[in-house]
Each structure stands twice: as C-alpha cells, then as structure tokens.
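To: structure desk
From: M.T.
Subject: fold request, one chain
Message: Could you run this one when you get a chance? Sequence is below, nothing fancy, just the single chain.
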Amino acid sequence: MSIDAATPSVLRRLFRGIVRLGDRSGPVPVLTLAMAGMLLIQLHRTIHDVDIFWQLKLGEITLAHGLPAHEPFLAGAETEPLAVVAWLAQAVYAFTRQLGGWTLLWLVDALVWFGGFVIVARHAARRLPNDWHAAIGLWIGWFAALFSASVRPQSFAALAFGLLIVLIRSELSLVRTALLGGALLVVWQNLHPSVVVGGLAIGAAVIGNGVQYLRKKSPAPPWRLIALLPLAALAVLATPAGTDILRVSRLNARLSLYLEVAEWMPMTWQISEFGRPFAWMSLLIVVAGVLVRGRRVRASTLAIVVALTAAMLFSHRFVLFWGIAVIPLFCELFGTEGQPAPPRSGFRRPLAVLAILAAIGGPCAFHPAPFADYYPFTGVQQLRESGVRGTVFTNYYWGGLVAEAMHPDARVTHDGRYYLKSIADWDRYFEETSHATVATLERVLARDRPSAFFLRPGTDDDLIALLERDPRWRTLHADANCFVSVPVRER
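Reply: Done. Structure tokens follow.
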C-alpha cells in the first residue's frame, strides 16, 4: 500500500501505522477482527426466506420416516413422486432446529454461509505477511453477497464452493484431489443442487492453468483439475432424484425467470434494488483493480472470476459464488507473498476469541430468532386452531408456512416450488387471485374444493374482496400480511 508524497507527514505516518497494524507478527489479529465485525452485521439480518418452512417440515419427515415417495404438501399431487431437491440440507436444518430451536438454526446457517468466505480468506492469507489484503478482499466479496444471506440450503453451497476454491488452489496430488473433490461435489449436490457452479469454476481453472502451462509459467498441465471435471458432471446426478434433478432444475430456472423472481433476474434488472447496488460497487472495485494491476494475478484465479462475473451478470443469484471467488483475486492484486514472521504478542489469540464470542453472543442474546416482520404467524395459528382440514387455497408466498404448520391435516394449493406447476398453471393462478371475478372464484371452488383461503393483501386483493362479500365465507383473520377465510359452516 502507498500514499501520495504530497500528503502531510503526520497523515503518512498514520497511514503506515495502520498498514503495519495488519502485520501477522503484530499484536492485532486484523483478519479475525474483520471477520467478527462482518459476522456481527450478518447476524442482524432477518430470517426472510419464505421457503424455509416447507423445507424444515420435509426435513422432519425425512428424519422420522426417510424421504417420502410422494408429494406430501401440494393438493392434487398426492400420487405424484416427490421432487427431491436439497434433501440433505433439509434434514440437517430439521435436526438443528430440533436440537436448539430457531436460534441455533439461525446461528448455524449464518456460520455455514459465512464459512465459505472465511475458508477462502484464511487460505489466501497464509502466505501474506500482512492481513489487510485478505481482510479487504473478504469485505469486498462479503459486501457484494450479503443481501443473499438467509436461512436456506444455498448457505451450504457457499461453504462447499469455498472448500472447492481452496482445493483448486492447493498443491495436492491428483489422487488426493480426485478423492476429496469427488466427495465434496457429491455432498454439495445433495445439500443444494448447484454443483454445476463448481463445474464452471473447475473448467475455468483448467483453462487458466492451461494458459499458464502454455506460457511456460507452470511446470505441468493441470491434470488434477482436469480429473475433477467428469466427477463434477457425475455429481450432478448423484442424488436420490437421479436424472430427474435435470428436469427440476431446468423447470425451476425457466419458471423463476418467467415469474421474475428477483435473484434469478440479470444484474441490470431493477438495478437499485434487491442488493444489486452492493454487487455493482464490489464489481467496479474489482474491475478497476484488474485494469491497474491485473498482471499480478494468476490466470486460473482470473479465469474463475471472469466466468462467475458472466454468470452473475446474467443472473444475480450467482453473486454468492462470485463474492467468494474474488477474495484470492484481491489478495493477488495487492498483496505480496512472503513468509509471515511469527507473532510477537501472546494477545492475538485471546483477542480473536473474544471478538468472535462477542460477535456471536450479542445477537443471540438480543435477537434470538430475528424473523422478518411480514411473516403471518398469527394468521397461521388461528387457522390451525380453527380445526380446518383438507385443502387450503394459498398464496404461493405463504404456502410453505401453511404447509409446515398444518401437515398432515391440510394440503396447500401453491407454495414456493415453482417447478411443480406449469406456466399455464401459474398464469391461471394469477388470473384467479390478482384479477379475480365471480366466475374465477366459482371455478376455484369447484376445482379445489378449499376448506379455507390463506391469501396475501396487496397481490390477492380482488379475490379477498370477493370472499368478503360472499355469504358462504367468513373472515377468520385479517391483517397487513394475510387474509384468512373459512366457510360459514365452520363457525
């Protein structure tokens, strides 16, 4: 790091003092303190993903009876085979909640998600005599991806991707790389079906290392990484779903784009919302660094970041993996490898431990389960206490929450699993809720024979208005987040 010579000498000394503070031989564990600060901020984010509820219930069923053979939640799909997605993460989540409630689940998920970033930052910092480069690189990647942090199986994908980046950058033998990499890729795919991202990173690293070899900057071809490519391809199918995972993944991507799910849309879509400003700021910083000092970066490191940048620009959900991949790139841009001197102070480890404990203990004590304020828990409780059985016509946003609370006594008509219905089904659903008429209400009643409606004000207002005027139905509960209606006979 440098500072302009025109800067007053006092500021220059201050700047140099701050830089020296990051020396690995000094008394302050800068990287660990930075990690503690980021974790503290992350633990103040709310639990905001609505799909976690059906995922937890499915995990509980799996722990108790094994994976169900048929769809357990969706009305009308009782005889259809279960679309198996992220089953291992669901089971781990369910076990964690059984062990320590929502607080432990929320904490474990945050540590898993952040762990993918920490592992890469720690590995990249090993050969740097100063912690600041890894700390700032970690912050840039974490800052870009922070908006995607919530309790959901994708957190395990972050951890698995971080481990894969470390494996790619390691100097293990071909056999050890294949054994460890194969196991990692299979576990990853069962935790979250995104191992194709790992395949993309491996392929980019192979190209980058191949370029280094051809330019005689590498002593041997990247055989150990080439060996991982077929393993990544096979891992895609190494789940209980088998080849059906390809169909489900393809439908999920297609329908998510059709329904304009925010994280699936390009980076240029509603550019000022959904965390995109964070990602754009980090991307501009990295691009500027590459333009100025790109020759310092390994071809394989740059190739991975370029591949993930393209993926992120196409679909914002890849920002999570991009944020992890840029950490070693930033370290190579601005750090200088060298053997760190041994620490001269015995206070580094105690200070690091205290910082991590404070980062975890404070949020757990004051925000034990920070749910977003839009979850309709009161409405769900009243519906459950009403004794409703059968089919509940649900807004897809709340379907998972209702399914988790009402299973096995009731089934829902829609939830967040877009891939379980066709485009025509979704078009009909939006017509019946957002543009409801007397005719569409009658069609719903005849087709689904619902025992209750669980709707969302703002998107389902037309259907809500019809139910309020219909003498056959009464309002069980209504607030800013949900509208619950049951037949008059349920009085």
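Reply (cont.): The beta strands are 390-394, 410-412, 452-455, 473-478, 483-487. Let me know if you need anything else for the meeting.
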